[in-house]
Amino acid sequence: MSEKKVRFVYADNAATTPPHPEVVREINKYLTEGWGNPSSLYGKGRDAKHAITDARERISSHLGCSPNELYFTSCGTESDNWAIKGAVSANRGRNHIITSAIEHPAVLNTCKSLEKQGMRVTYAGVDSDGFVNIDEIKSAISEDTLLVAVMLANNEIGTIQPIREIADIAHRYGALMFTDAVQAVGSIPVNVSDLGADLLAMSGHKMHAPKGVGALYIKKGTKIANLIDGGGQESKRRGGTENVPYIMGFAKALDIACDRMADTPGLIKMRDRVISELSKIPHSKINGHLTRRLPGNVNIAFEYIEGESMLLLLDMAGICVSTGSACSSNSLEPSHVLLSIGVPHEKAHGSLRISLSHDNTDEEIDYILEILPPIVERLRAMSPIYPGNQI
Ligand code: PLP
């Protein structure tokens, strides 16, 4: 244990990540100097245009696609909406979508809204580790299936899905394969052709770029309608003057993230240390697969106590974690992901997500492991349902 006590530990990187200092410098450069409109014909505009062309080339080389298959958006949610709604409106002959029960609300609620408009949607279940039930996909798919939408990595339990296998099934029936890779890009190597994806969504703020920038990969030849009509930006496929500073920050963040992937074994070591130490707490259980999960993701259920109480006590100690996904944390309903993998309501309520990044240190892990177990003990001592506490 280090002499100096850590006072602030950010361990909620699946919710958002702090922008990297080099990313901030890059953004500032394009706010203060490179602020031209890329559509303007004079030098300042042309400079901005060259800059985003360079960003597009760098991002697409990381993903193994061509620059003209990459379209900038405002966020992961927009990319998810565009992929699904755009595919549906451009391919009217087919009426069926297959997705999974553990998708992010940006996908689930988009599918629900299309259901109201007459689309048929199959929500394939998952096993106890969070892997999509492939047999359910095989039995649901038909010549009527337009799109299969399964996320690459889950935002709560970190499970990494076998997208290639699912894409092969989709393609056998002439359906498109869309994967929400918002949690994966920048965290694990992502190559669109290896995955067999026709459409792939990503977001800047999960990889140390700011909130408010994302992208959609659209494989050449994929029929997809526009979501946002406007001027001629993004090859006339996504209107709106480009957010040049954030696009540049996004490209810089992905460059850095890809460099840092060489340190993934170190991140996995930290994650596994947290998993093995916290698993020693009685009546605790890791949610999700032990190894086929994102390198920084820990999700653990502590029976007999509430995740919110743990979160607040950890916050008082300067530690930021999450009880479910940030997007649903204003709801008292247990996480749909944990319920789908078969975690009972009461255990789902006592679950914590600790999501680490390369910025976390061994000293910070020491601090989490010093602070969290006594919190669990303290809350259990007060819990009327903890065995032995009943009068
Ligand atoms: N998809 C997944 C898997 C996510 O984790 C998130 C954000 O948490 C999103 C989509 C939405 O991305 P954004 O916050 O950029 O809209």
Helix/strand order, N-terminal first: EHHEHEHEHEHEHEEHHHEEHEHHEH
CATH topology of the largest domain: Aspartate Aminotransferase, domain 2
Small-molecule binders: pyridoxal-5'-phosphate
Note the beta-strand portion. Answer: 5-15%
What helical percentage do the residues reach? 40-55%
Structural class: alpha/beta
Mean of residue pLDDT values: 95
Second rung of CATH, namely the architecture of the largest domain: 3-Layer(aba) Sandwich
Query: Which strand order spans the largest sheet, edge to edge or round the barrel?
Result: 2-8-7-6-5-3-4
Largest sheet: 7 strands, mixed
Q: Into how many domains do the coordinates divide?
A: 2
Distance between the termini: 39 Å
Name the assembly state: single chain
Number of helices: 14
- Ranges where pLDDT stays below 50 over 5 or more residues in a row are none
Basic shape: globular
CATH class of the largest domain: Alpha Beta
Q: Specify Rg, calculated over alpha carbons.
A: 22 Å
- Name of the CATH superfamily of the largest domain: Type I PLP-dependent aspartate aminotransferase-like (Major domain)
How many distinct beta strands? 12
